[in-house]
Amino acid sequence: MKVIQCTKDHAQPILEILNDAIINSTALYDYQPRTMQSMDGWFDTKIKNNFPVIGIINDQQEFMGFGSYGTFRAWPAYHYTVEHSLYIHKRYRGKGLGKILLKEIIENAVKQDYHCLIAGIDSTNKVSIKLHETFGFEFSGRIKQVGYKFKQWLDLDFYQLLLSTPVDPREH
After folding, report:
1. H/E element holding 105?
2. Hey, where are the domains in the chain?
3. Res. 172: pLDDT tops 90
4. Given CA atoms 135, 109, 161, 11 in this order, what sign does their dihedral have?
5. Strand-pair category, 138-149 with 152-162
6. What's the CA gap between 1 and 85, in Å, rounded?
7. Residue 140 has pLDDT above 90, yes or no
8. Contact present, 1 and 57 (Cβ < 8 Å)
């Protein structure tokens, strides 16, 4: 198993994982599968903002999952806060890959001098909630019935992890 920095060459397996989550879960509050064309813009935004896209491949070079982060809110005072996500291919869930990806996300955020990591997690996603709590994320609030999917209202829970970085924060 190997952790990699993803490039646009990994767009197809990332798209497959995202679309599976859209179609079969409440991990993404989206209705329509994404297109390959949408991945160009997604990667362009990641590259432009120096946001990592971290992947895991196995010894057979199969893509097993990925994680990334991006802008939390687009106002200057939120400069030190990012919102992350991670997704594991359905064939590889339950094998500890989420722990590997979340550890990498945290390490990258520290290297890039972020201060706060935010996770927006569907309130029924107990596996993701437990994973985040294992890493010290704290429940910071619930927005009730913020989404509607699969003929039901969805509650979104927010978890956050405060990092010791940056050493010398400044207003941007």
Report:
1. helix 97-111
2. 2-162
3. no
4. negative
5. antiparallel
6. 20
7. yes
8. yes
